[in-house]
Structures are given as structure tokens and as C-alpha cells.
Specification:
about 300 residues, mainly alpha
């Protein structure tokens, strides 16, 4: 009898850690979603509790990003948490990758960007909030990546994969040649004239460093991998599509707000391009995630 009890106890103990880990993973996604909404509502979009050390133009960009954070990133993260909580071991982790990678990119910029001497503000008081969301995003990304079973991922049509691959490569070319290269050439001049650079040089260099050092290489890697149908690409495809949809929407929001407020750094061409990229990224996210969600609902 004692042996039976011990055997039963060991079976329960062996089953508990995965259950506890799943609940903690879901809670982490809920916290990330709540954090994204809190940053948006506390910032210049609504509460103005957080005041950034940045020019008016840069603050307008933050407002646009906060709109996407509130309306898209936060609900996306919470949806992923609900799926994980309910035991959807494929859909939950796959959806978790997008907001996790968004957090790594966005909250590092909000924490480190700005001119803390030149412009008044108090964003440094919220450093631990940004740091916490950054660390949480990294932990969620790693956990989600390890939980995804490639064999259980629904396949996508070849035309969809070709479209996604080409989109990633076109986006990388646009970021380098259409967006960042003109700004770099101006910044390297003896007398830079770019309003964006002169107003917020720290933000300028931080964005250039992250986009050209992380985003562009990641897009090129994902694009080539998807086009070649490499065996290692399924996880990267889902991660890149989700991240592109969220970040693309955030950047489109920034461009639109800049255009509406008459920011001198805004251009109609960039606003149209970023809005189009965001719309395409959201469309591709739907194409990729819809089979996964339909499978989950069934």
C-alpha cells in the first residue's frame, strides 16, 4: 500500500512541473500585455505621467508607437497567454514570439533613447519598468522558442512562403537604402541638415544601430530561409511575421502621427510606404496564423 502511494505521488510530482511552468508562462504573457498597455497609457498618448527626454517630433513618434502598443501588442500578448493557459501548446507559444520580440526592440529604445540633458522629462524614473519588460520579453521569446514543435506547425502554401520571403527582402532593402542611408550620409557631413538628427541625435544613432545591426540582418536571414524552404526556417518564419506585423504597425503609427502633426521630418512617401508595409505584414500574419488558430478552435 505504501509503495502504491509513493508511486502515485511520484506521478503527480512529475506532472506538476509542466503544469506550473505553463501557468507561469501564461502569466508572463499577461504581464507583458498589461505592461505594454501601461506604457502606452502612462505616456504622451494619454496620461502624460511618463515624459520623455526628446524633441516634440520624437514624442510624436512615441505617441504613434503607443497606439499600436495599446491596440495591437497588448491584446496579442494577452491572447497568446490565454491560449497557453488553456493548454494550446502550439498556438500559444507561436503567438507569444511576436510581442516578446517587439518588447526587446521597443522598450530598449524607450529606456535608452533621448537626450537626458537637453530636454526635460522624467522617463528615467521608469527605467525599471522598461528593463522589466525587456527581460520579460527575452524570457518569453526563449521559452516560446523551446516549446514550439515544428512537426505540429501547419504548413503554408508555397505562394505564401514566396510572398513572405520576398517581402522580408524588400523590407530590408527599403530600410537600408530608402530610410537609413540618406540619414547616415547627412549625419556624416561636416554640417548635418536633417531635422531628425539635429533634434535627437541619440535616438537617431540608437535606431540606426538596432535596425542595421539586428533588424536588417534578421529580415535577410528570414527572407532567404523562407524562399529556400530551409528545414530550420519554420520557427523563424512565425517569429519574423509576428514581429514584423507588430513593429510595422507601430512604425506606421509613428509616421501617420508625424504627418498629421506637421512634423518637418515627416514625408508623405515614407508615411505611405510604412502604412503599406504594415498592412502587408498584418495580412501575411493572418495568412500564416489563421490555419494555426482554426486548428486550435477545432
Amino acid at each position: 500500500m505504501t509503495q502504491v502511494k509513493k508511486h502515485h505521488s511520484s506521478r503527480v510530482d512529475a506532472a506538476n512541473p509542466p503544469e506550473v511552468g505553463r501557468r507561469l508562462f501564461a502569466l508572463a504573457l499577461f504581464v507583458l500585455g498589461a505592461g505594454a498597455a501601461s506604457v502606452a497609457l502612462l505616456g504622451p498618448l494619454r496620461g502624460e505621467v511618463i515624459r520623455y527626454h526628446a524633441s516634440e517630433g520624437a514624442v510624436n513618434q512615441i505617441v504613434g508607437g503607443d497606439v499600436a502598443g495599446l491596440l495591437l501588442v497588448a491584446p496579442w500578448s494577452i491572447l497568446a497567454g490565454v491560449l497557453v493557459w488553456r493548454g494550446h501548446h502550439t498556438a500559444g507559444p507561436v503567438l507569444a514570439l511576436g510581442p516578446a520580440l517587439y518588447a526587446l526592440y521597443m522598450y530598449s529604445q524607450l529606456a535608452l533613447g533621448g537626450d537626458f540633458v537637453r530636454y526635460p522629462g522624467n522617463s528615467e524614473r521608469f527605467f525599471l519598468l522598461y528593463l522589466g519588460l525587456f527581460v520579460l520579453g527575452g524570457a518569453i521569446a526563449v521559452r516560446a522558442w523551446t516549446l514550439i514543435d515544428v512537426e505540429k506547425l501547419p504548413g503554408t502554401a508555397r505562394w505564401a512562403d514566396r510572398t513572405i520571403g520576398v517581402f522580408f527582402l524588400v523590407m530590408a532593402v527599403f530600410l537600408v537604402g530608402g530610410l537609413h542611408l540618406p540619414g547616415l550620409i547627412d549625419a556624416w557631413a561636416d554640417q548635418p541638415a536633417s531635422t531628425e538628427y539635429l533634434a535627437d541625435p541619440a535616438v537617431f544613432w540608437l535606431v540606426k544601430f538596432m535596425d542595421l545591426g539586428i533588424v536588417v540582418p534578421g529580415l535577410v536571414l528570414a527572407g532567404i530561409g523562407v524562399l529556400r524552404a530551409s528545414r530550420w526556417v519554420p520557427k523563424i518564419k512565425y517569429a519574423a511575421v509576428g514581429w514584423a506585423a507588430l513593429l510595422g504597425s507601430s512604425v506606421a503609427g509613428m509616421a501617420i502621427v508625424m504627418q498629421l502633426t506637421g512634423d518637418p521630418a515627416a514625408t508623405l512617401a515614407n508615411t505611405i510606404a510604412f502604412t503599406a508595409f504594415a498592412a502587408m505584414a498584418l495580412g501575411m500574419a493572418w495568412v500564416v496564423y489563421a490555419p494555426l488558430l482554426r486548428k486550435t478552435i477545432r
